[in-house]
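queue> holo job accepted (FE2/S2 (inorganic) cluster)
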Amino acid sequence: MTVMEKKQLLGFLEQKPQKAWLEALGAIREDTHSVDREATRIWFSFWPLELSEALRAPEGALEMARSMDLEGEWKLEKQMDASVAFLYGARHWVAVKNAILTQSDSDTLATTIRGVALRVSETDKVAVSLVLGISAVGLMVFRQVGQEVFEKMADSPAEGELLPKNPDRVVTKRKRKSRDGVLTFLKGVNRKFDVRWNERTRNGSFRAINGQDIAMAGARAEGDYRTLDYRRIDGPVPVECRVGSCGYCWVGVLEGHGNLSAISDFERERLRYFGYDTTNDPDDEQPRIRLACQAQCHGDVSLAIAPWNGELKRRHHQGRKKLGTA
Ligand code: FES
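queue> job finished
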């Protein structure tokens, strides 16, 4: 493929606003294997277009990060291979990147995603449904980090542990109830549930008492989590305030969203304030993006933990006003 054709694909992607990407995710949703259906949307929540655009403001990324109070790993280009690890399709990450680098644009975003997935299915001999989600993610990574960085990393695999090879077993395991999840009626208020914060490791879960919020339950998990992320000072979920003020503790719920307390007006408003709610359905009482200090457990859940936190909406708008562009 010529440099011009590659530029055409990037130019095509750059014309698409976040809304168009979310519509494309909707268009491929039913054809995406359930192992990655929610994981794909959660990845798009963790890495919204608005974040990368804010970081490209004329003040520079560091100044914008300061103005948005960003904490954690907020630079996608530094962790593009790690960011995808919680998706099943991560095992095809190299094939996805190479397919993108040889893909030209097509009529719509959804058909471009399908085109990449088809090529990956041919090179890696895998069902298209298993690589549709990761293909969408790959195109968004390409859109956000740009051609040079993407090309440099084209042959590096996903970083970290991968999900087991059998996708149906992953789905079954997510849905399997822990012992107290099964004995719900016998154990009454003394039930305890599994919170899987990392499905890919043996020690990636902790227990939550019925009605306890995820953040509080995580504080009892033993282990050194700061080496994974300096924000994890009290268990595997980053926390600071525990009352919905700081925004450290946002998580994506891969499975078990129906086992969490219904979202309150306060939590919904806080998610909106931070700019974390890009993929949540405003009418959903148990959406996939939650604040761990507000969501209480009434059953088993599987999570993905957001790699950064900050005040994306408010600070971004303030920054734009300062620049006289809003
Ligand atoms: S710990 Fe501060 S918002 Fe949850």
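queue> DSSP finds 16 helices and seven strands in the chain.
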